[in-house]
Amino acid sequence: MSEDIWAAQDTNPDAIEAALRELLRERHAANEALAPARVLNLVVVVDREWKGEIANRLERVGRYHASRTVLCAVEEQRRTLDAVATVSYQEPQGSALGVMHESVEIDIGPAHLSGLRTIVDPVLIGEIPTVMWSPHGHGEAVQSLLPLIDVMLIDSDDIDDPAEAFARAEHLRRKTYIVDLAWLRTTPWRERLAATFDLPERLEALRAMNELEVRHRETSMASALLLAGWMSSRLAWPSSHLRLWDGRVAGQARNGTGDVTVSLRTAEQEAPGLAGVTVSCSDGTSLSLQRGDGGLDATERTGDGHEYSWKILGASRGEGGILGEGVRQALLRDPTYVPALNAARGLCPA
Amino acid sequence: MSATSPLSAADTDNPLVAGLERLPVHPTSLVIFGATGDLAHRKLLPALYNLAHEGQLPERFEVIGVGRRTQEDEEFRDTVIDSIERFSRRRPDPSVLEGLLTELRYVQGSFDDDEVYAELGRTLAEFDSAAGRKLDRVFYLSTAPEFFPLIAGKLGDHNLHQVENASVRIVIEKPFGYDLASARKLNAELLEVFEEPQIFRIDHYLGKETVQNLMALRFANALFEPVWNRNYIDHVQITAAEDIGIGGRAGYYEHSGALRDLVQNHMLQLLALLTMEPPTAFDANRLRDEKLKVLEAIVPPTLDDVASMALRAQYAPGVVGGAEVPGYREEDGVARYSRTPTYAALRLYVSNWRWAGVPFYLRTGKQLSRKLTEIAVVLKQIPHVALQSSGSVGIQANQLVFTVQPDEGVSVSIGAKIPGTRMRIRPVNMEFRYGTSFLSESPEAYERLILDAMRGDATLFTRNDEVEALWGIIDPILEAWESDTSSTIPQYDAGSSGPREADALLDDGRIWRRL
User: Fold this and answer.
1) ipTM
2) The pTM is what?
3) Fewest CB atoms less than 10 Å from the CB: which of A4, A175, A202, A325?
């Protein structure tokens, strides 16, 4: 990967934008096969001391790099803007086309947050969607940028109290489209549960479900609640708040034909997200999915007592992959998140 | 049930599927005939790995390779590892690869050997037993076409073509026949064993993103439809140019030639997608019904017409990429006086209300100056030029160009003013390139198509009546060319843009686009 870099201290947005334009112009003039990516802008607001860590996470999103990433690092006491603009690219081979990505790091001070829109707006590419991610809070910056953005990237697992995390999600989703990384951590599980119950004989069992257990890393209760909320919303279960009971968080929902026990358990696990899901039905059948190497380990128990085990293949995306998926999802629209969020709010432990 | 509505007692659809990008695929055993062949090695096995990596394979998935080469399961696994490590679009994750290999089996034997099918039946039953249910079955025939009827027949003989409470599908690779008569015969032979909905004829071109984007561009934009007809479109050029020769495929190519290799399938499919009427829904039969209608509107030439609407040629020695290359007739395995065309160009008309009088020019060739597959829709000239001053190339007809390879994308040429004091116009391009406009890389066509076949979605596969319609267009040309044993076959220099004689196919001052 090659890079062209511009840097300035005590600068301003117009100068940053002009520098980016010039970097792109010069590189395109040097090699016409290089064209700028024009998919989406990503604005990230972070604490200055965590800038490096967040930059590393952004590096690991694989092929899902934003076309232009604007990283605003908030530094106590700072009153001026320092900026570094970078155009990165790989020289294309033969007649192939090469794509350039742009990034801007702007060091800002707390006093800039309320008017952050006036700093960021001139630096964005027009006519393409803008996504914002503010992993360290900075509500003032979010409020300032909301009129500019199309999508807000959040992580409900970042906030210890899921009720508070979901209240934030609900507040933001009334103002813009949100992509929740905690929800994306449940995607492979949702896909697998949907596939499992796609077989005609199992679809019937879905109506007879009487127990749903979700196992999760301690810090990922929001993900677990979203998965339970998804199941609840898809199957139209009336449910109520879960309670701490017998070492787990559990409660009852109603599944048309009977009660469903919904429970969440914490599990020892290094990676954020879910560790396993078990679905049991009144006829004695159950299906358990457990995170394992190279995919999910599945175990099915049938009503007549047989047990079958197999591996459902799939590589772990890692947290870099989850963030990349968040960026990609910003271009899509998922109609099932909001119902799942509402149901998850209803399940939040009282 | 609506896409997002929850389950009610009367629902038979799966309510958990709504909103998911990846639709479920039922548990499947995939049997690859010709598992040690080149297609399996380069495309199918790497595609399976990529599907596994992305978690897109069915929850229970077993693979059985069938081949004539003598080897044990373990040796077959080594071959699979080699294929994936060399040709996968991503570096394999060891634990996913290991998982994929765990249940991999190999059945050795000749395709006419009943014991192969008996062993296959036992292995499939074993997989079913381990799963506690009947798995769907997909038989992928990655073999020479002469084995298609034989294998289909044997599958039927051994009752492997149907399973209670599970689906059985057969996938066959092009060519679907050698001419119209053989295509009809092949269809009849397949249909003796399988129902048409079980048969998936794969043309990997249809799995390419750009080809599908042809439909998106036409039917998801109000911009193009008003001009998509004889009133605004002057002509269309479809080009499939290759900058390589026949390599080690003389045996296949001598038998096939340019018309069968690319025109009868890929290029006519592109033409159908470009010209068909909008389907009422994007499902297998409605889409293929529309393609069939437009293919049937292409009037096949009479034998007398062929000379004026079709041209064939062969590459002569030349220079490609700075290196001297032999002519076609000097290639290993090619007859010294071979009459097999390595280049074919056609002029076709679609005889319906929308397209009457619009010529469609198709050309394909090997050992040309560059590799390029594109569709160029050339609009008519504007009726009156008021703006133009001298000193420029001037106003030119707008062109909408879909590039299938090497860089997938779409460009529109428009007239724009050259900066300066005078009103001078020249064409400029508005470009859309997948690489700059989407975050994801396009999956390999085979990944999409294998998944569709396992899911039973035949939208991007060719139906039997379509195959026969495609051959119906080409058959008279083949007949005319193959019955002519005396006229000179035009030669073009390897590394050139093709034979000069091809220019004569274009009339009314039209010219071929530069490769």
Assistant:
1) 0.89
2) 0.90
3) A175
